Amino acid sequence: MNEFKEITAAQLEGNPFSMIGKSWMLITAEKGGKVNTMTASWGGLGIMWGKNVAFVTIRPQRYTNEFVKSSDTFSLSFYDESYRKTLAYLGRVSGRDENKVEKSELTVAYDNGTPYFEEANTVLICKKLYAQPYTKDSFVDKSIIQDSYPEKDFHILYIADIVKVLQK
Predict the structure, then answer these.
(1) So what's the pLDDT on residue 8?
(2) Which residues neighbour 125 within 8 Å (Cβ) at sequence distance 6 or greater?
(3) Cα–Cα nearest to 155, from 130, 134, 137, 125
(4) H or E element at residue 56
(5) Are 165 and 8 in contact (CB under 8 A)?
(6) Residue 114 phi/psi, 5° resolution?
(7) How many CA atoms lie within 13 A of 110 on its CB side?
(8) Which structural domains are found in the chain, ordered by start?
(9) DSSP, residue by residue, 66-129
């Protein structure tokens, strides 16, 4: 297996629009000694408060939200196209219903207590800075509510400091 090397966020290779929106990512955290993950295609990378940050959104009913909410850190991991079926499975099945991490056959690794998967090409280790639920009143374009939130299950926005980037 290829070894990761630590790089700076400025050295990160890849277009974040493709990495997140087209190739997808896994959001992974640990709670009570158990690891859970979910596939995400919404989020972004940028600068906030003078820091390199990632932002992710998680619906409150998602099992992974419990893990991210209870942990100071989480990882974002990115994969090549050969993992598409695995990512689809991890986005479709809840960790409440089965041990999807085990069934995915991905290998859990840790960086200072933050779980990620060895099969990834790129891993961002993130420390939470901010969490805020979206609210109906905050939407300027109200059509987003009808299009993306018919159940009014608004995402929770997490902004996190990218404390480490690992890349193969």
Answers:
(1) 95
(2) 73, 75, 111, 112, 114, 116, 162, 163, 164, 165, 166
(3) 134
(4) strand 51-58
(5) yes
(6) -95, 120
(7) 9
(8) 5-167 (2.30.110.10)
(9) HHHHH-SEEEEEE--GGGHHHHHHHHHS-TTTS-HHHHHTPPEEEETTEEEETT-SEEEEEEEE
User: In which residue are the tokens 């619906």 written?
Assistant: 59
DSSP category for residue 17: I
Identity at 143, one-letter amino acid code: S
Q: Cβ(77)–Cβ(117) under 8 Å?
A: yes
Instruction: Give the dihedral sign, CA 64/66/69/70.
Output: negative
0.85 exceeded by the pTM?
Answer: yes
Those residues with Cβ within 8 angstroms of residue 48's Cβ, 6 or more apart along the chain or in another chain: 55, 129, 159
pLDDT of 54-111, one tens digit each?
999 999 999 999 999 999 999 999 999 999 999 999 999 999 999 999 999 999 999 9
Cα–Cα distance for residue pair 120/141, rounded to 1 Å: 36
Q: Cα-flanking dihedrals φ and ψ of residue 117, to 5°?
A: -120, 135
Contact in structure between 75 and 36 (CB atoms under 8 Å): no
